[in-house]
Give the backbone structure.
Amino acid sequence: MIAYETSTKERPADHFATDHLKGDLARRSIRSGALTLSSQAVKFVLGIGSTALLARLLSPEDYGVVGMVAIVLNFAVMFQYLGLSRATVQWPELNHRQVSNLFWINIGLSALMALFMIGASPLIASFFNEPRVIGVTVGYALSVFITGLWIQHEALLVRQMRFPILTVIDLTSVLLGLAVAIIAAWREAGYWALVYNQITTTVVQACGFWWFCKWRPGLPSKGSQIRSILLFGGHFTGTNLMNFLSRNLDNMLIGKFWGAVQLGLYSKSYQLLLTPIEQILGPIGSVAIPALSRLSEDTKSYRKAYLGTIEKIAMVSMPGVTFMCATSDWLVFILLGPQWDESGRIFMFLGIAAVVQPITRTCQWLLSTQGRTREMFIWSFIAAGLSISSIFIGLRWGAIGVAASFAIVDFCLHTPLLFWYAGRKGPVRTIDFYKVLKPSFCASIATLGVLLISRDLLATIDPLALRVAIAFLLTIVTSAVVFLLIPAGRQALLGFKELLTLMITPRQSVDREVEKI
């Protein structure tokens, strides 16, 4: 280990060592998950409220202009990270010189990507025939560079599972960013309100990560043995590149052939649907990845931890997304307003794919924490081929056609192929996915049937918010009944009780409680 000066009481090794986490890993993971989920619940409420307000202050065209820039932004972010933050979180042994080199690599890539965005802005404007894109691209380029300053600091906090600090930074940055966006939109800044939101959020994050993570990078050095780390990151980047093509081609083609309005309707529907999913997966993933990495040599514990996690994700997300699909037109009217009426059907079709996406996204946790990053890279080509094909099939019918085609291909082809691919080897097998998801799938089907049968009756209820609230209550009751009727569902419900028990169980009883879940 290379010694370096620090003004805090922390030793240099404290930023990289993880042995001290293993003794209380189960309870630490559960409590961290509960904390981050709570913070995400707060973010969700803030996000829904701000979305409803901004959707009334801004137009679909405003979101469409920013959506055009989002394509090149996602490309830049993919390369500025280069998978190195994930490597910092998962790598068994790290030292100061290695992380310092990773820091400077991220800084260099961030500067390069920012310059790339600025240089590409006239081409983007020409492609979409939209000159307003130039200024917006420059604003987002500034955000990209600032992000490079804290990538490794955030990764070190995640590696140490210091989730209370991460929660404070996350909530503060989101709150201040939304406040700036709302004020700017109210003062008729138009699409610039969304740019100000991004820059403010990034600056606050940079300040927070540097304040709470006392590690400071050294100068770049040779002989730090980071070649294997870069190879790990390269596989991640290759995977992300294919994901980028498949997830952004729809926005690019809709914007090109159908204009900013159609793109705004589509991108906002996609964002509205994915927001609650990401609010669940984001915090759970941030806890699950380092935890599974520490359990990678204990296959029995690894399998129980992963399957227990996705079981609970499915119990919440699958009936929840089904509810959103069945009430899509009502939700869009409440959250976005009447000018977004066309988004309702787009929202509904995308929801078909979103029913299983919370689970399929966790397959990346398996491949990465098992060291199967090359397989993950190969799979990205298969997934991208399916996604791109579905986009071209549906494009002739506009945004709605793309949404419908994507949903059918994702649900009927992508999902079963991915479960087979991820379960070919390792502690988690293909059949495990279907066994774990069976109760939640049955609950979702029953919920869909109840909501469709009762739609005409619910449509007579005013105000609209009360109608949606009753539909949500029906979702909860129907799902609970199905879980209670199915033996596997009853066992899954008991799992939530075990989670609560684990959160308050003394440390010496942790292992016994973990065995139950």
User: Anything to note?
Assistant: Confidence is low (pLDDT under 50) at residues 1-10, 502-517. The chain is about 80% helix and 0% strand. Residues 227-294 form the longest helix (68 residues). Residues 9-225 form one domain.
